[in-house]
Amino acid sequence: MLSIEQIDAFIATVDCGSFSAAARKLGKVQSAVSQNIMNLEIDCGIELFDRSGRYPTLNDAGHKLLPYARAVSMQHNRLSEQAFSLSRKELEPIILAVDEGLPLNKITPIICKLVESVPRVQVECLLASTADIIEMVQSGRATTGLIFGEYSVPFSLDFENVGAIEFDIYVAADHPLAQAVSPHIEVLSLHRQLVISSRNSNESSLHQLLSPDVWFSDSYAMLIEWCKAGLGWTFIPCYLAKQALKEGTLIPVPIEFEKISAISNVELIQHSSKSSDFAHKKLRELVKSLFEGM
After folding, report:
1. What CA–CA distance (Å, rounded) separates 201 from 98?
2. Which of 23, 94, 106, 117 is the most interior residue, by most CB within 10 Å?
3. Which tens digits make up the pLDDT trace of 205-258?
4. In degrees, to the nearest 5, what angle opens at C-alpha 253 toward C-alphas 172 and 132?
5. Pair 145, 200: CB distance under 8 Å
6. Residue 241's closest CA among 183, 293, 165, 181?
């Protein structure tokens, strides 16, 4: 009979690269990890590791079993979290991490409605980039995140699409790119690019580097100020550029044949241990109205 201890030992050995490292991660002695792996192989009727080298490496059978083991481990964790949540009487505090590129003026009305439904809830709000928020929710620093759908979300997190935001490329009105309609998008590579970045420097599928000359900031407000000063072009949410467009300090980069605007999905992510909490469920319901009419 397969046990969760065997599965955890198997996954930890794969992730850590050795039985001793897996034992340290699991807080067990090495002999216990090795025995769990041996029992797993006996129950499966086949060896899962090649032990001919200094460190154990997965063989073909091990590679086939691994995704199923990870799925079982994840479901076991969710079961444990759900069982624990049934006995909790206290409300879980909400730590909401929001990508700064999202409309922050709509967050407070959502929190006000949440407090009407859950008067005793405690709320903390953090601003960060999407990549950083994913790590914050995964580590437990935040319980809920509002992010752009530009990164893959780990299986350990619950997520759903709640809306979309349009992006476009902007430049100062007196920048060389604004003086004429360019024939193709490659002209952007001739000018400095101003890019939003995460604190951990994870790459984004939405904010691709097109120029060899790139400046970074983790603040869209700073990117807009740099752009208005003529320091380069930037790819930002259209609603953030509205005031500068109205003032005439920014314009969309004119490209003749190519549409360079894009729509990015907005996703709500939550740690699986919080998804069944009443306040967190209520927050999910309210956030779905956040982008209506945008």
Report:
1. 18
2. 94
3. 667 788 899 999 888 999 999 999 999 999 999 999 999 999 999 999 888 766
4. 80
5. no
6. 165
Give me the amino acid identity at 173. A
Q: Using CA atoms, how far apart are residues 134 and 36, in angstroms rounded to an integer?
A: 32
Give the DSSP H or E segment for 95.
strand 94-99
Write out the residue limits of the CATH 3.40.190.290 domain(s) in the chain. 165-263
For 23, phi then psi, to 5°, come to: -65, -40
Structure tokens at 32: 């216990």
Domain 4-86: which topology?
Arc Repressor Mutant, subunit A (1.10.10)
With a threshold of 0.85, does the pTM exceed it?
Answer: no
Amino acid identity of residue 40, one-letter, is L
CATH code 3.40.190.10 for 94-162+265-287: yes
Tens of pLDDT, residue by residue over 116-144, are 888 888 899 999 888 889 999 988 899 99
* Collapsed DSSP state (helix, strand, coil) of residue 107: helix
Token digits of residue 45: 């009727």
CATH 1.10.10.10 residue ranges for the chain? 4-86
The 10 Å Cβ neighbour count of residue 63 is 12
Question: Which structure tokens are listed for 172?
Answer: 């100062």
Look up the CATH number of domain 165-263.
3.40.190.290
Give the pair of three-digit tokens for residue 120.
């005793």
Contact 189, 169 (CB under 8 A): no
Helix, strand, or coil (residue 137): helix
Cβ atoms of 248 and 173 closer than 8 Å? yes
The string of pLDDT tens digits covering residues 18-74 is: 888 988 988 889 888 889 888 988 888 889 988 888 888 899 998 999 998 888 887
Contacting residues for 90 by C-beta, under 8 A, at least 6 apart: none
